[in-house]
Amino acid sequence: MKNLSTKIVLVSLLTLSLNSYAQKLPFSGLFGQIGVGYNGSSTYASGTTTVNSVKVLGDYNVGKTYNFAESIAMGYNYVINPKVRLGVGFEYNIMIASPKQDVTLKSGNTTAILGQSMEKNAYNFFLAPGYVIGNDGLAYAKFGLASSRTDLLGDTINFKGYTVGVGYKYAIDPNIFLFGEVNYSVYDDQSSSPVTSISGVQANHTLNYTNNSTMALVGYGFSF
User: Fold this and answer.
1) φ, ψ (nearest 5 deg) of residue 153
2) Which of 116, 154, 159, 194 could lock 100 by a disulfide, CB 3.0 to 4.6 Å apart?
3) Does residue 4 surpass a pLDDT of 80?
4) Mapping DSSP to helix (H, G, I), strand (E, B) and coil, where does residue 6 land?
5) What is the pTM of this model?
6) 119 and 159 in contact (C-beta within 8 Å)?
7) Which residues contact 37 (CB under 8 A, 6 or more apart)?
8) Other C-beta atoms within 10 Å of 69: how many?
9) Distance in angstroms (rounded) separating the CA atoms of residues 120 and 151
């Protein structure tokens, strides 16, 4: 019983010591941040279109969309040593005033508008290893599992993939920091079978999509 009590006391002292150690170091513990930025997304389509039981051969073009984005993230920075951090977190990005992009099919000399595409939002779960620079800076990389939701020809397409990024945080006081980062996301292929019309005639599509995006963000955050 005495040995058990001793072990409990030692573990408690060690925990308090680690917590005290972490609190003395910059960019450690729980954090939350808000950012705004610019997002560029590229979607590519391939497949077949059938009109009046006849397959129409041609090239699909979804194009690129550019829009402002708002980002909210929360996470925790683990102290590996006085200079090294490992961040774990969740990030949610909302596309602001996302423009609608025409989806077209070019067959021969004719180009038909099939419908529209619009990116809605994206999120990711990430790891962020970082290195403390001086007393006020943190350079970090990001690696995460990502998801993006896009409305395409009346269907909602949920893209799944991964994201990588780099960033820098600067502490303006012990609890408030500024940050800037750039993230690149690549998503797995998705498919859908939308029904639209071409010149008033029903068109049935079987399409495969790929997507990638680049987002640049700046903002501020709080360490708790």
Assistant:
1) 50, 40
2) 116
3) no
4) helix
5) 0.81
6) no
7) 68, 69, 71, 215, 216, 217, 218, 219
8) 22
9) 7
